Amino acid sequence: MQLRSEPKWQIVESLKDFGWRQRKHYSLARSKVDTKMSDHILIMVENGPDISLGERELNSALKTLCTIQHPYIYPTTFALPCEVGALILRELNTEGSIRDYIYKSKPRSPFMKKYGGKGRTLPIHEIKKFGRQIIEAIIFLKERGFMMGHIHAGNVLLQSDVCKLTDIENSLLGLSYHSRHYVLNFRKIQTLEAEAVYNVGRLLYEMTFGETLRAGAIESLPPATPPQIRALLEELITVTACKNGMPLLSQLLKHSFFEDCSIPISLMEKPALKVSTKLKEALKLSIDNAEKRLLSEQKSISHARRVSKAQERSMSEEGKKKRKKDQIKQLKEGEAEEDYPVSSLLATNSPKASNQSAKHETKDNNNKEPASTASSIVSSEESNQTGATDDRGKLLTSISSFNKTGLNKADTHDRSAPQL
């Protein structure tokens, strides 16, 4: 229904199992006007949880997306907002993505069949070239207000041995990226730029070892890691690096690993992208909202982890023993407080009373009320103690002198024996 506004295009067939997202649908489209034009791919993307752009801002951003001219960004033919998301039309790339290149698979094959096994490792010079091209494209988008966090081997297309970023609209529509569940465990990765750097590290790992990183971070790199890239990977995907924080994109581009990577003269054309001031402000607000949501989820997960650890400690044997010792200690302290004599309390309070009486005596020597009050308190306490002991003695003598013979006899019938 959405293609009625674009009468030049028609849907040929639906591409099932083309990607890994369930809420992203792919179809093969062709031009009605120019039959010689190559096939295009039509993508229907549903909105994600981080979308914060209004209808006008989203429409303006999608139109701006179609005007990007950059040697390392794949062009978009047209992009239209719809009720649940957006429609994106791009030329079908027959060479496929970097992941297709690693696994030697066909681009139009089902996702699960293409990447089931282990792929090949890329040579160091290709990793350098592809990595630098990807970083330069991300920096270009960041400087114009667009933040590309959806970086993985499937979103980087190859065309004539050149990397080209695609699916930039995912960030505009608020979609969660592939490795977000890993980033939630690292409190130092709090910005979209840090997320992009982290995802670049995961992509470099996949190109180096021919397989995706199966965890959020690794303690140490495998022994077979090439020495040229070892230092860079240690700064991006190790546990220590994720706990300390990611470098900036500008710092990553200046890393020694990319120093001797030259760019062909044909690709040194000046990129072009004009973004209005209102759209820049809307994109900045959208990025701020996404970062706030990321920080909030990280705090929630950290709190839940602390509660879980506390419950595990309380349920352990050592925790039970410690709680039992604390309870016994509290009971002993309570008994000691109950058995503490009143005379000792009076003894501890007597210096205060004597001090008070001394002060009163200095003011008025004839006033002897404090001393008499203290003596009356002591005498009342002693009288109470003697009265309590007399009552207990009377109770004990009455119990011991009790005569059972004066009680009436009771008739009992034993029915415990079985009846035959």
Give a structural overview.
The protein has 420 residues and is of the alpha+beta class. 48% of the residues lie in helices and 9% in strands. Helix 4 (124-143) runs antiparallel to helix 7 and helix 13 (342-363) packs antiparallel against helix 14 (369-400). The model is unreliable at 342-379 (pLDDT under 50).
* First-to-last CA distance: 93 Å
Helix tally equals: 14
Summarize the helix and strand pattern as letters: EEEHEEHHHEEHHHHHHHHHH
Question: Helix/strand-derived class?
Answer: alpha+beta
Shape type? elongated
Instruction: Write down the Rg.
Output: 40 Å
Quick one: biggest sheet? 5 strands, antiparallel
Number of strands: 7
**Helix coverage percent of residues?**
40-55%
Average pLDDT taken over every residue: 79
Strand content: 5-15%
List keywords for this structure.
7 strands, 420 residues, alpha+beta, two-stranded antiparallel ribbon, 5-stranded antiparallel β-sheet
Topology at a glance:
Blueprint: E1 9-15, E2 24-31, E3 40-46, H1 55-65, E4 78-81, E5 85-91, H2 98-103, H3 111-114, H4 124-143, E6 156-158, E7 163-165, H5 169-172, H6 180-183, H7 192-209, H8 227-234, H9 239-244, H10 249-253, H11 277-315, H12 317-338, H13 342-363, H14 369-400
Antiparallel strand pairs: 1-2, 2-3, 3-5, 4-5, 6-7
Quick structural summary:
The protein contains 14 helices and seven strands. The chain has 420 residues and is of the alpha+beta class.
